[in-house]
Every structure is written in structure tokens, then in C-alpha cells.
Amino acid sequence: MVVWFRHGSCTVGVPDGVVRAADFAALTGLLDAARTLQGERERLIAGVEEEIAQMREAAQAQIEQEMEAAREDYARAREEGFAQGLREATEQWTEQALREGASTQRNLMRQTQRLSQIVSLALERIVSHEDRVTLFNRALQQISRLVRDVPMATLRVSPDELGSALTAVAAFAPCAAGRLQIEVKGDSALEPGSCLFESDQGVIDAGLKTQLAAIKRAMDRAAQHMMLEESTQPAAEVVGMETSSPHHAPADNDEPDTSPHTDAA
Asked: Where do the coiled-coil regions begin and end (predicted)?
């Protein structure tokens, strides 16, 4: 027969149910040792569990830190990518806008030049078909502003237009009374529309071709002003003449052009 003794979690079997004194002392010593081992085991297990918990917390903290860093990297990369995309889109838009602007400017320049040509042709036709008396009147008005202190001058025209020139000079005479005496002569070397004004200050060509050239230059200036918006001069002049003389400098590029002419009469 075996008698089993339980002490805590320890169980000891004793044959025939008799525990001798020496065995009892050994048994209690073993029980104490068993309890000590049990406590040490529990302490070790608790220490290991605590260490595992600390390691788990450290790992979790590291994971969260790495996740936060990854999120920051993602956000930064996303922002940089957005900024880069925005820069590229801006560059593309700017390049396209510049191309479209250049194309629009070229079209505008062509249209403006075409409009200038149309207006110039229309004005040339009007001027070339107007009454010759009007042509000479305009020439005399321009000449009177260009010459100073000239008592006598000669106006040479085509013989076919001598009558118109005399009519214009007669109408102009009261305005120049006491300042300028004009003699009108027909010159067979001159074609219709010609108008040469001779004086001590030189020769001024105020004919039809000169006035038409002045109209074209004025329209060209107007076109350039519309395209560039830089010129501060008047956009257009309806009538002008070219001039140059040894004693009188031209007022601008549309004043009468003085060039040497010989008297063929």
C-alpha cells in the first residue's frame, strides 16, 4: 500500500503509510527546495514575460516611428512630385502660351501690314485721281512752312497742268502776300503730277509721287506703332513731302525731299 501526501503542488508517495523521522526531515527539505524552485521558476517566467513585454513595446514604438518616418517620406515625396509636376505643367503652359502668342503676333503683323497696304492703296488712288488744283494747293501749303525769307521762287510743273498750277498759285497768293512771289513755268521734261519748287534755298520735290511715298511711310509707321506700341509719333499723316536743301534741314522724314533738278525749260 502507498500513502500519498500532498503539500502545495508537490505530491509524495509513502509506502505502507509510515513516514520515518529521517525521511520526514528529508521530505520537508525536498518540499522546501521544491517551493524555492517553484518560486524561482515563477520569478524567471515573470522576468522573461516582462522582458518580452518591453521588447514588444520597443518593437511597437520602433514600428510606429518607422511608419511615421515612412508617412513623412511619402508626404514629402508626394509634395515634391506635385511641385515638380506643377513646374513641368507651368513650363509646358508657358511654352505653349509663348508659341500661341508668337503665332498671334505674326498673324496680327500680317493683318496689320495687309490693312496698311489696303489703306495706302486707297489713299493713293484718292490722291492720284483728285483735282490737280488741290494737289498744288497742298504742295504750296507744305512749301510755305518749309521755306523762310525767300522773296522769289519758281514752281515748275508739267505743261499739261500749267493751268491748274496757275489757279492754285492765284488762290495761294493772298496768303503769301508780301512774303513770297511765285512764278509758274511749264517744264516739258516733267510728267503729270510733278511739282518742283526752286528757290535760293534749293529745290523741293512736292509732286504726286513724293506725296504718295509720304502716305505710304506714314501708314508703315502707323502699322509699326500698332504692333509694337512703342512709337510716340502720330500714327499717320495724310499728306507729306520730302525735302533737303543746303540751307534748310528737313523737319522729319515725311517733309519734302530736296534733290538737285535741272531746268529743262
From this structure: 45-80
